Amino acid sequence: MQQLFELNELVQELLMEILQNAFVIYASFCILAPVIFYLVSVILAPRKPSKVKKIPFESGQTPFPYRINPYPIEYFPYVIIYIAYALLALIAFVTSMSLMESSEALIAGIIVLSLVTAISIYLSLYLKSLTQKLERGVV
Amino acid sequence: MPFDHVQFLINVLNSIPESVRTVIKYTFSEPFVKAVIFPGALFGIILGLFAVWYERKILARIMLRVGPLHVGKVSGILQLVADALKILSKERVVPDVRNKYSFVMMPPVALILALLLFAFLPFSPEWIIYPSDIGLLLFFGVLAISPLPIILAAYTARSKYPFIGMTRFALQLFGYEVPLFIALTGIILMARSFDIIKIVESQRGMPFIIPQFIGFIVFFITMMAESERIPFDIPTAESEIVSGWHTEYSGVYFLMIQFTSYEKTLSLCILASLLYLGGWHGPQIPYIPETVSAPFWVIFKALILFTILVIIRGAYPRVTIEKVLDLGWRYLIPIGFINLLLTIILLGF
């Protein structure tokens, strides 16, 4: 009985903590907003299911059961380069604070950034002809 | 006689049960007001509705039209409420998709993520839902997750237009996520903090748009691409791929997607006003206390940026996918790195 009472008190305290936290209240409202939209739609919207409505939209053409979806392969190198760039950007983003702490870190940071900048400029000049090379099948 | 009235009022207030009094007291408490009224849910929704009306009016002016006029007494202000009700009263059509639950759940998830962005945006040192030392990181954490529901929604749709829209969206994301981070690193270096409040406070003397002008241009362009606004709306290009990744959505799901788009754009505009335009720092308005004038300046600056976005939408055509990727990869990334290098050299020596 004593344990149950303590648990009840703990739950009450937790509830009070939650009710005093603006972020938790706001997050609850964020979750509630789509639910309210949906409920209003349930009240207002008609329900007339039909087989035609289940077919994917095809701009007025007759839908066909299977297809090969095109993927623009000429831009695939960009995706690969993205991995390297994203990592560099993330490192720069996170370590930017510690860069200014000592002169050694600053100099090292400037050297690395100069290299990265030079590489990015070189790549920007090289990428200009990359898609054309792919189209010709040279690369 | 007036004393009797006061006494009567006191008696009435005393007769209210304790539980009801606690609820009333709670609704006027600081956390509840921040979460529900300002800068929380109600403000986000009203700002979103206002932004749609404002955009339609400005676009109409650019095209020498009048825009919304008849619904509501003043300039068709209630047109959006009518539009929202119309969309809500449309049938919720769920086509024959790969996974029905995933298809139905993605628009609400996208909306929740877009609304959550407002939690990390301060409108003054006091008016913030979730103050944090790493507020900027948290904002970009949520922003980084926000493409996931879009990609999943398009993938589950089992239709050609959403799939093409998804691949375009992914390519655009690859091109513009990196310059966005590089541009922001310059700001963090100057303010030496990830806390948005501290970043704004360090702009007391001079807004960061002056020393970080190159960074601001990079940020503004990536912001446009991130929020899929014209001229960077290739994932949803109407005249090419119907409606892109959300072609199969209708009714309430379509409304949620539209709302998500506007909330995301507005939150990015507010962030830009905080990071580059000095946030709540502005001329003191006579007879207005700072608790009111501070949010006013933030919203005013954000609306200026939003107006520029709308004017660009009205004045420029959509750019092709090659040009969008070219701009992101060949220009914005090197410019971003040059800006970062200049910032470090400027601050170090």
Q: What can you tell me about this protein's structure?
A:
The complex is a heterodimer of chains A (139) and B (349). Chain A is mostly helical. Chain A has 2 domains: 2-47, no CATH class; 73-136. Chain A has helices at 2-19, 22-44, 76-99, 103-126, 130-136. The radius of gyration of chain A is 29 Å and the shape is flat. The termini of chain A are far apart. The mean pLDDT of chain A is 75. Chain B is mainly alpha-helical. Chain B has one domain. Chain B has helices at 2-15, 18-27, 30-37, 41-62, 79-88, 100-116, 135-145, 147-156, 160-191, 196-201, 213-226, 238-241, 251-275, 290-315, 321-348. In chain B, helix 8 (147-156) packs antiparallel against helix 9, helix 9 (160-191) packs parallel to helix 15 and helix 11 (213-226) packs antiparallel against helix 15. Classes of the chains: A mainly alpha (139), B mainly alpha (349). Chains A and B meet through helix 2, helix 3 and helix 4 of A and helix 3, helix 6, helix 9, helix 13 and helix 15 of B.
Features:
heterodimer; A: 139 residues; mainly alpha; flat; B: 349 residues
**Number of beta strands of chain A:** 0
**What's the average pLDDT of chain A?**
75
Oligomer: heterodimer
Helix content of chain A: 55-70%
Portion in helices of chain B = 55-70%
Overall radius of gyration of chain B? 23 Å
| DSSP summary: helix tally of chain B | 15
Count of DSSP-assigned helices of chain A: 5
Find the count of extended strands of chain B (DSSP E, 2+ residues).
Answer: 0
Total discrete domains of chain A: 2
Share of residues in strands of chain A: under 5%
| CA radius of gyration of chain A | 29 Å
**Elements of chain B, N to C (H/E):** HHHHHHHHHHHHHHH
Please write the string of helix (H) and strand (E) elements of chain A.
HHHHH
- What would the principal axes of the Cα set say about the shape of chain A? flat
Please state the average pLDDT score of chain B: 85
- How would the global form of chain B be characterised? globular
